[in-house]
């Protein structure tokens, strides 16, 4: 019965301490107590029938109370469960809807009003995409009165670097909204905790965070980042020099499920905002879908023509034609080829992850595909995923240096977009960057840039994403 305190943390186990060892010995779980006949359980564990019946009824009553679908007598008063989320009406849920603003109208509009309370929101992206800047803005805006914030202190849990106090001070001085409203946010209302490993992280989230919520009235918790400790703990090479074994990955999956359940319980019970930052990794193709450059896009081929050079370049992805052909009878097509799935099974994870990771949902994408860390197991634990995407912009160098000649293309700047991958309260952005909001990081905070019609012909604006119909200017 080791799972009883996990399923029902408040269950009074001391009243049934005589029964639990025998149930544990015979591998009786909490699910068995709820679903199986109590007579069969008593025979299986060799325990008195009435005692097992009493335990089964107590577990059922505790579960109903926890879910809010019953009433329990407590002395002279009755604790009704009408405050539970399962018993709230649609109007009650609307009235209790709270969000934290990003302090930018375009970003808030894409997010359906901001970051919602009661849910786990993930912000993922490459290094330098703007995740930390996005989170620092939330730390300060949460202290503002509604509708911008929740008028409450915030908690920042760091698994990597320390909280950047210098940048927070700069935002307080230069951001027009933060500097003009009263009362002004304060660094004193930002609580920072460092957690260098999984053991301390679990202890902080399970014991210290509930105490801090009750003591300080915290309404925003940021975990930056959720993947760092799991990567350090479970992605080490094995003793024999090999890769991570299956047992480690199974344990990691179980721990991720527990973490997701813990964060959801905190968010729902206290109606607070939980935001986690996540890292990304390069996505590699499967054995049967790799291309010459190692990418894993949707591939293209001419179904009636295949040359030895093409077969050598593309490996197994270009199939030989069924009949001999000639270049004269089959000239190169001028229209795009028909795409086919990158894996034999279109329902496989390698194919489906294009539409819940934030990268690769463009059928013509071929390079620089990313995937959020911790895989599908963690994806099922969150309610909202926000992907921050960056792309380089190259231009001719103005002068020669040690590495480049004059006029050679060099990196001039980065363009960044915020993309809603999925969310229960906001419309997901379309394929590629169709409905994504471009933003820039400035001294006074994160600001969206205004889209204007681009003058000229051609279907590309120079950033390689094929969305050449618009360009952008700072707001």
TrEMBL record:
Keyword field: ATP-binding, DNA damage, DNA repair, Nucleotide-binding, Nucleus
Organism (species): Venustampulla echinocandica
Cellular location(s): Nucleus
The protein, known as: RecA family profile 1 domain-containing protein
Compositionally biased residues, Low complexity: 285-296, 320-329
Pro residues bias (residue ranges): 330-345
GO molecular function terms listed in the Swiss-Prot or TrEMBL record: ATP binding; ATP-dependent DNA damage sensor activity; DNA strand exchange activity; double-stranded DNA binding; single-stranded DNA binding
Lineage, opening ranks: Eukaryota, Fungi, Dikarya, Ascomycota, Pezizomycotina
Ranges of compositional bias, category Acidic residues: 458-475
Annotated GO CC locations: nucleus
Biased composition (Polar residues): 302-319
Biological processes annotated in GO: DNA recombinase assembly; DNA strand invasion; meiosis I cell cycle process; mitotic recombination
Pfam families: Rad51 (PF08423)
Record InterPro entries: AAA+_ATPase, P-loop_NTPase, Rad51_C, RecA_ATP-bd, XRCC3-like_C
Ranges where the RecA family profile domain occurs: 96-280
Region (Disordered): 285-352, 450-475
Origin superkingdom: Eukaryota
Chief location of this protein within or outside the cell: nucleus
């Amino acid at each position: 019965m080791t799972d009883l305190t996990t399923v029902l943390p408040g269950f009074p186990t001391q009243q049934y301490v005589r029964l639990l060892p025998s149930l544990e010995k015979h591998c009786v779980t909490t699910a068995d107590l709820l679903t199986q006949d109590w007579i069969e359980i008593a025979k299986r564990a060799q325990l008195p029938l009435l005692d097992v019946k009493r335990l089964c009824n107590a577990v059922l009553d505790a579960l109903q109370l926890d879910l809010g679908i019953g009433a329990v007598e407590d002395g002279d008063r009755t604790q009704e469960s009408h405050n539970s989320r399962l018993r709230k009406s649609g109007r009650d849920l609307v009235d209790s809807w709270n969000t934290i603003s990003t302090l930018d109208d375009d970003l808030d509009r894409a997010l359906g009003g901001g970051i919602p309370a009661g849910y786990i929101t993930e912000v993922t992206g490459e290094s330098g995409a703007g995740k930390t800047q996005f989170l620092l803005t939330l730390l300060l805006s949460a202290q503002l009165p509604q509708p911008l914030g929740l008028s409450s202190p915030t908690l920042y849990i760091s698994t990597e670097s320390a909280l950047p106090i210098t940048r927070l001070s700069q935002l307080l001085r230069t951001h027009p909204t933060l500097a003009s409203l009263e009362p002004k946010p304060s660094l004193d209302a930002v609580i920072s905790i460092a957690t260098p490993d999984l053991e301390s992280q679990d202890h902080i989230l399970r014991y210290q965070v509930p105490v801090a919520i009750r003591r300080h009235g915290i309404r925003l918790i940021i975990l930056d980042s959720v993947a760092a400790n799991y990567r350090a703990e479970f992605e080490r090479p094995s003793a024999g020099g090999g890769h991570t074994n299956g047992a480690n990955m199974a344990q990691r999956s179980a721990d991720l499920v527990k973490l997701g359940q813990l964060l959801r319980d905190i968010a729902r019970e206290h109606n607070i905002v939980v935001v986690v930052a996540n890292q990304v990794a390069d996505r590699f193709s499967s054995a049967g879908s790799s291309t010459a450059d190692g990418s894993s896009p949707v591939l293209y081929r001419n179904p009636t023509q295949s040359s030895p050079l093409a077969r050598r370049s593309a490996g197994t992805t270009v199939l030989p034609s069924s009949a001999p052909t000639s270049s004269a009878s089959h000239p190169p097509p001028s229209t795009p080829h028909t795409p086919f799935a990158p894996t034999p099974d279109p329902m496989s994870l390698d194919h489906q992850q294009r539409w819940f990771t934030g990268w690769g949902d463009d059928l013509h994408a071929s390079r620089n595909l990313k995937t959020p860390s911790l895989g599908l197991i963690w994806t099922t634990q969150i309610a909202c995923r926000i992907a921050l995407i960056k792309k380089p912009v190259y231009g001719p160098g103005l002068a020669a240096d040690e590495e480049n000649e004059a006029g050679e293309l060099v990196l001039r700047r980065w363009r960044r977009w915020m993309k809603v991958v999925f969310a229960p309260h906001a419309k997901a952005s379309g394929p590629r960057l169709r409905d994504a909001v471009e933003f820039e990081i400035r001294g006074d905070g994160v600001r969206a840039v205004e889209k204007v019609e681009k003058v000229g012909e051609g279907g590309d604006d120079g950033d390689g994403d094929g969305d050449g119909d618009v360009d952008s200017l700072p707001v």
